[in-house]
Amino acid sequence: MKKNFQIIAIVIILITSITACSGQRSTLFVDDKCNLPCWRGIEFGMTRENVRALLSEMEDIRPLSISFGESSSRSLNTSISVLFEGGTFRKATFYFADDNLKVMVFQEPLNDNDELGYWIKELGQPDQLSLCGGELTRFAMWHSYYYFDSPICLFGKPSKEKNVYKIDEKTPIESVVISDLTYDRGLAKIDCYSDFFSDQIQEWSGFREYNICPNQESLCD
Fold this sequence. Notes:
Helices cover 19% and strands 28% of the residues. The chain contains four helices and eleven strands; from the N terminus they run ααββββαβββββαββ. The longest helix has 21 residues.
């Protein structure tokens, strides 16, 4: 009898643990310091050194993973990249223009965070989406989801679809981009703010099939 009780107790603990893991909220929303677009005390306009100092104090970021990048071809000419210890994303990159933080990208979501349905539950229905694929995108189809008056856009994993793409709750998401609303996101050229996406914007109307590259006046193939 005692053995049976122990088995039942173990099963209950396992079920509780699994439920807790599957219900885990994203890194973006588990924060008591500030609300998006601020993240864990990191705010747009901060310098690279300010951001580095805050990142180095976070327990779920690998200390030796903090790295710096530079680019002479972008408006966002410097960056900081980090790797997470578990959590809901594998890594994140912080982009700066003239040493002012302008864009944060949280990449490779884990668990159910990598599905569009999860983000719609958190953020609501997107207002627009972009489906673009062809020669300019090396024959891959890229998809992005946009919210009006919001600092967030969702960048989907590439597909090989050619004419139409069916979007549902399981549609895979590759990264979540948070940007400074005062910054011209056309200059960012990061993930869902890449140039060729803006020419193929269409209205979101729920989960269904959408035409890829609906704007025939803009090159897509």
